[in-house]
Amino acid sequence: MSGQRNQTGSAKSERSKAGFSLIELLIVVAVILIIAAIAIPNFIRSKMMANEAAAVQNSRNVTTAEVVYSTTYGIGFSPTLVALSGSSAIVDQNNAGLIDSVLAAGAKSGYAFTYNVLTQDALGHVTGYSLNADPLTPSTGTRHFYTDQTSVIRANETTTAGPTDPAIQ
Q1: Tens digits of residue pLDDT in 4-36
Q2: Domain containing 64: what range?
Q3: How far is Cα 82 from Cα 100, in angstroms, rounded to an integer?
Q4: Residue 102 lies inside a defined structural domain of this protein
Q5: Domain count, the chain
């Protein structure tokens, strides 16, 4: 009989070494889900903040490019965002090469950029413009941004920003 007990005892120990029990697997899955529940909202929030920071930086890039465009060509500001970009070997007032083509297309880093000519002189040269940056979806950002020829970037939490909104800090 003692021989049988040794065989069954060793069979039990081999079986317990074969894998994890269902409860152990459920505990591991529960721990992973808890960690994911904590990490995913933080990741989404940080992604939104990164998109907003990118929108502000892209707005600064456009205002800087407008100053360079105006200084270089002496005809005021550009008539479109596309005129500020350009990928041809010839750089001129229609292909200035000052911003990248993705930004010139009007959407970058989860934000839609809308460029509008506000004022022109008697010769048709642009003397005033506005640039709005609005999130494409609520998950890409919550703030809306506005800038114009004054180079002051303004923000609004709820709707499209305008010239009367507070400047960002």
Answers
A1: 555 555 555 555 567 888 999 999 999 999 999
A2: 2-156
A3: 9
A4: yes
A5: 1
On whether the CB atoms of residues 73 and 63 are closer than 8 A, the answer is: no
In a domain, 93, yes or no: yes
Phi, psi torsion values for 159, nearest 5 degrees: -145, 180
Strands (DSSP E) contained in the chain are 107-108, 111-120, 126-135, 144-148, 154-156
**How many residues can be counted in the chain?**
169
Q: pLDDT per residue over 112-148, tens digit each? A: 999 999 999 999 999 999 999 999 998 889 999 999 9
Is 36 inside a domain boundary? yes
Q: Are 100 and 113 in contact (CB under 8 A)?
A: no
For residue 22, what is the DSSP state? Answer: H
CB 92 within 8 A of CB 54: no
What are residue 110's DSSP bridge partners?
Answer: none
